[in-house]
Design a protein that fits this description.
Radius of gyration: 19 Å
CATH topology of the largest domain: Lipocalin
Largest sheet: 8 strands, antiparallel, barrel
Order of helices and strands: HHEEEEEEEE
Strand order of the largest sheet: 1-2-3-4-5-6-7-8
Helix content: 10-25%
Structural class: alpha+beta
CATH class of the largest domain: Mainly Beta
CATH architecture of the largest domain: Beta Barrel
């Protein structure tokens, strides 16, 4: 459903641009639409008989995402923006559908707030992949595990005045 809405907005924007109309009622620019799509999750459902000739991926467990990751972590506060390259985060399993993301202790960036995401498996980012994503509407933020290359992308949201949000992109070690 979200994809249809996104495509509608993108098509509407292109129609305005192609007609060279300048309108105060333009819904959004491509970059705005793109950022909306990054912030939201795409959900799909398929019936058992609706495989379009493609083999459906085997649904797995969330264990594939558990491990140590190395990559870029950034955060900000009123004093500025902070980035760390070669940052380490640890993903642990907290139940059959929960993953906890924690920055490695003892590091300069260790003060960011750990988050526990409720997740599900899917073939979200390609055919026959085992990807793991946070549920749509998650208050903790967004968690994506890309099964094809064993990378994660995590963006956390503050849920209290003491939370320190962070964004992390990294590869499994």
């Amino acid at each position: 459903m979200f994809i249809d809405y996104y495509l509608y907005i993108f098509a509407y924007y292109n129609k305005i641009e192609n007609n060279h109309e300048k309108s105060k009622h333009k819904i959004c620019s491509f970059s705005t639409c793109h950022s909306i799509s990054i912030r939201n999750r795409v959900t799909t459902s398929c019936s058992k008989d609706d495989d379009n000739g493609h083999e459906q991926p085997v649904q797995g467990t969330i264990d594939a995402a558990v491990g140590t990751y190395k990559g870029k972590l950034n955060t900000s506060d009123t004093n500025g923006v902070y980035e760390w390259f070669d940052a380490i985060v640890i993903v642990t399993k907290e139940g059959s559908n929960k993953l906890k993301i924690t920055a490695k202790s003892g590091e300069e960036y260790s003060y960011v707030t750990p988050k526990t995401f409720t997740v599900e498996t899917c073939a979200c980012f390609g055919e026959n992949t085992q990807d793991i994503v946070s549920l749509t509407g998650s208050l903790e933020g967004i968690f994506h595990y890309y099964g094809s290359n064993k990378n994660i992308s995590v963006s956390t949201d503050e849920q209290s005045a003491t939370d320190v949000y962070f964004h992390f992109d990294g590869v499994k070690q």
